[in-house]
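Quick one, probably user error.
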């Protein structure tokens, strides 16, 4: 499958049309941004690492969660089903961190007694503000059954990711998912990567995710190469 027209260029990926109107190619770039694009850098190999990690995790959840991913075409390119992105991002939290810690005045790190699902309106212009189900319904962003699917799929992804990372001695603190629709089906879209997750090494609390970049905690390229090695047992390049 060849790349056609560039349909969209985001902060981390490009979306290309293909000869098949029902499929797109996602191209993973090395660009990293934080604070909605205010902080920017090139992170060597990030695109390669994220492309393979996302493919791996989307395959992992496929038995119980419908996913857009079909095939890895090259180290940075994935063939995916084209979806209509639902403009409601779903965040799942297992521990207190990030905006959840900040808005509630809590210290980071505490374990939540059950996972917390939060919704955010996908809008760069507004900095992805928090919304609730009523707002999403009233504003026509999603149907009730779609929100139900998104919640259940997100919690299922959480169970799977916790189990996987547990085996590698890493805690899944939180992560963000995007969903899309294909006809009457809700499908997990976009990516599952350390760009949109918090992964803390058990025991040390070391960050194995994009917070290394956001908070200047070290070399993100090295961190991502290390994650790649831990997951795939080989070096990136
Ligand atoms: N299967 C798909 N079909 C169509 N669009 C998709 C699909 N999967 C992901 N997308 C969209 O492609 C874009 C990927 O680009 P990227 O991740 O760089 O975006 P971004 O900079 O995070 O910006 P934003 O998500 O706010 O648009 C996102 O807008 C995402 O919603
Ligand atoms: Mg994105």
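Nope, works fine. Designed sequence:
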């Amino acid at each position: 499958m060849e790349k056609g027209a560039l349909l969209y260029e985001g902060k981390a990926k490009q979306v290309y049309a293909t000869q098949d109107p029902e499929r797109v190619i996602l191209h993973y770039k090395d660009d990293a941004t934080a604070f909605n694009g205010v902080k920017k850098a090139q992170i060597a190999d990030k695109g390669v690492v994220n492309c393979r990690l996302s493919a791996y995790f989307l395959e992992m959840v496929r038995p119980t969660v419908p996913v857009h991913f079909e095939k890895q075409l090259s180290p940075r390119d994935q063939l995916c089903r084209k979806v209509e992105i639902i403009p409601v991002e779903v965040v799942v939290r297992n521990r207190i961190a990030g905006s959840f810690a900040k808005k509630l005045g809590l210290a980071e790190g505490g374990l939540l007694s059950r996972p917390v699902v939060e919704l955010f309106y996908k809008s760069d212009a507004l900095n992805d503000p928090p919304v609730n189900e009523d707002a999403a319904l009233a504003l026509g962003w999603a149907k009730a059954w779609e929100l139900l699917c998104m919640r259940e799929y997100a919690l299922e992804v959480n169970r799977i990711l916790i189990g996987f990372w547990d085996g590698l001695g890493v805690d899944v603190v939180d992560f963000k998912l995007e969903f899309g629709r294909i006809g009457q089906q809700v499908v997990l879209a976009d990516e599952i990567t350390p760009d949109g997750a918090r992964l803390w090494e058990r025991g040390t609390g070391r960050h194995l995710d994009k917070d290394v970049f956001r908070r200047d905690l070290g070399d993100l390229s090295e961190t991502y190469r290390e994650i790649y090695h831990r997951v795939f047992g080989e070096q990136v390049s």
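The two ends are 25 Å apart (CA to CA).
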